[in-house]
Write a structure and sequence with these properties.
single chain, 399 residues, alpha+beta, FAD/NAD(P)-binding domain, 26% helix, binds flavin-adenine dinucleotide
Amino acid sequence: MTRKVLPSVPEVQPAYEVCIIGGGLHGLSLAYHLAKSGRRSVAVFERSYIGAGASGRNLSLIRSSWQQDAWVRLVWYARSLWNTISLELDYNVMFTQRGSFLCIGREETLPTVHAAIAMQNEIGVPTRFVHAAELGARVPQLNTAGIVGAIHDPTAGVSRHDALVWGYANGASRLGVHIHPETTVVGMELTGDRITALKTSRGRVEAEIVVNCAGSGSKEVGTMAGVELPTRPLTLEMFVTEPFAAYLDPIVSIIEDQAYIFQTSRGEFVGGAEPVGHLNQALASTSPALRQSAAALVRLFPRLAGVNMLRAWGGVIDMTPDGAGIVGAVEERPGFFLDCGWGGEGYMVSLATGPLNAAYINSGTLHALLAPFEYKRFERGEPFSDSFLVVDAAGETRA
Ligand SMILES: Cc1cc2nc3c(=O)[nH]c(=O)nc-3n(C[C@H](O)[C@H](O)[C@H](O)COP(=O)(O)OP(=O)(O)OC[C@H]3O[C@@H](n4cnc5c(N)ncnc54)[C@H](O)[C@@H]3O)c2cc1C
């Protein structure tokens, strides 16, 4: 039987209780959980097809080996949900637990690495430091020259990003959420300090609650609401090779080379290495990024020399000054909520932000796991600092 991603595509209604701007994973996960909590008037507006943003263009890595306590707690909570998400959505998102090795090239980084592992273990993440010799034995294909060791996260994994998008969209739609693809939010009407209606490419829609899940369009959406957000778009680039026999089981990345790679269950190698300060902001790939990726990954895995790349692409992420997402109710715009700015890590946390933000919208209490990501942290002078992020605060990229 054919299974439709969206069981129905309803007409745009003149009013909804909750209007979510952005049909990526954050918007869809939130919509699903709002409907699951009993909300009956929820709509998602997506200017293109669902998953057209970063949610449908990422590497789909899920790992908990972060430096910052708040990141580890949020990702670890999300990781617990990855075990059952296919059952929850009745949609196979093809999660596979590969384990990951986050390699470190510099001795000077080791004190930070050991402190991070101690913190991760305290939270419950079973990460462990492996020295270069053990790493070489565990991943014999890897050239460990210039690597002092790695953080092994046995719980890390990958899944199929399109399937997760379709699963959430299908689940939300079945619960009555109106998902409107090809519907751009172009402006907002304000009465006093509240947003009372959205202007969309399919007409005016009254709204009680508006949520900015617009990914790389978040700044623009903020501007429509008269709220200046500290977000900016940044491109990451990926490639996929021709398929081969099983060669590499874990995910391997290296901080200093900003490179990451894994082999899919179909045999293709998928990965990338981000040129420093890369500000391409387009969906096409570029030769410098491809050359850098190829050089870094062949250095790590010499046997990949000569392997043909089949496809390469770019995807635009939404970056905050500290590389961490922003959530919260905007004080000066009652009823306007944020769930954006998730940078290069928004895929893995989208399972957690949906239920936690839905609970926040319903109860008015921000969960302790999301509280550190509250958007006012910049005004309070409390930005994050996590040197294990793919893209760091300056917009430089790391693995
Ligand atoms: C190449 C690449 C690799 C990545 N790898 C990983 C990884 O391995 N692990 C990980 O956790 N994360 C990864 N990420 C990051 C992750 O993909 C994002 O953080 C996440 O998908 C963000 O989801 P989102 O829903 O917030 O945004 P998006 O998926 O970008 O969705 C936002 C949506 O809003 C829509 N929109 C914008 N403005 C409007 C408007 N005015 N009206 C209507 N719709 C609008 C857009 O069209 C878009 O579809 C990667 C990203 C890229 C690009």
